[in-house]
Amino acid sequence: MFPGSLGQSLAGRALRSGLWSLETVDIRDFARDKHRSVDDTPSGGGAGMVMRPDVVDAALASVEDRSGPVLYLSPRGRLLDQDFVRGLAGEPGVTLLCGRYEGVDQRVLEARNVVEVSVGDYVLSGGEPAALVLMDAVVRLLPGVMGNDDSGLEESFEQGLLEYPLYTRPSDWQGREVPEVLTSGHHDNIRLWRLAQAEEITEARRPDLWARYLKRRNEVPGKGR
Ligand code: SAM
């Protein structure tokens, strides 16, 4: 599963040139029986299987000299957002624990101070695609990974707003024209138009972000227009 799509494109090039690195650990290598089992039935009964604390702990111990937080991808975790992603991009490294079956025994999560992180309110069959999402979001923020380091600053969430609509050539496509202001060359007007569009879209689509943006704008003198 790894590096999966992260072996391609900008992230893949950055991986090959050493801007970031990836070490994968197969939890089965830490199993204690000849069947290499990592799971057992849930205490208290019920469906599915649970990943054993001793096996997961041994797998985590094998990378414990690595710096940075240990995160468990889990639908119960705090929602992954751009602020959290930015924080992770500033860490020297991150250890990601991918669950399978019903999940991981609670005791090893507590013993190792594992932080649970969710990629959304839906259930995946394993933590690996969630880990790829998190890694993609973090890797693109690492210095030197994106072609133009400024391009990230304008994107959705970076200013607390969703992104304004994007256009390129041709200026007339099937009778639909690029908004005139964008071809005016007037940078202040373009900036104000984009901000107004971003605000309109955010207010209409994401009342939660909009409320937070308004609060922040009122707190920071000179913020917004
Ligand atoms: N029994 C769990 C529950 O009800 O919350 C779901 C377990 S899920 C089938 C198996 C694994 O997929 C989880 O241990 C977790 O690692 C991963 N996973 C599933 N959904 C996820 C999400 N929304 N975010 C992050 N990881 C997720």
Low-confidence segments: none
The beta-strand count equals 7
Helix and strand pattern: HEEHEHEHEHEEHH
CATH fold-level topology of the largest domain: Alpha/beta knot
Main-sheet strand order equals 4-3-5
User: Beta-strand level of the residues, as a percent range?
Assistant: 5-15%
Span of the ends, CA to CA: 45 Å
Under the CATH scheme, which class of the largest domain?
Alpha Beta
SS element count, helices? 7
Which cofactors or ions or other ligands sit in this model? Answer: S-adenosylmethionine
> What is the count of distinct domains?
2
Backbone CA Rg: 22 Å
**Which of globular, elongated, flat, extended, rod-shaped describes the shape?**
elongated
Descriptive key words:
binds S-adenosylmethionine; transferase; S-adenosyl-L-methionine; Alpha/beta knot; methyltransferase; alpha/beta; elongated
Question: Could you explain the architecture of this structure?
Answer:
The protein is of the alpha/beta class. The protein folds into two domains: 4-139, Alpha/beta knot, CATH 3.40.1280; 151-219, Trp Operon Repressor, Chain A. It is 33% helix and 12% strand. The chain has seven helices and seven strands. It has helices at 9-16, 53-61, 82-89, 106-111, 128-139, 187-205, 207-219, and strands spanning 39-40, 50-51, 70-79, 95-98, 115-118, 172-173, 176-177. Strands 4-3-5 form a three-stranded parallel beta sheet, with helices on one face. A two-stranded antiparallel sheet has the order 1-2. Helix 3 (82-89) links the parallel strand 3 (70-79) and strand 4. Helix 3 crosses helix 5 (128-139) and helix 6 (187-205) crosses helix 7 (207-219). The longest helix has 19 residues, at 187-205. The chain is elongated. The mean pLDDT is 95. The structure holds S-adenosylmethionine. The site of S-adenosylmethionine (SAM) has 19 residues, from strand 3.
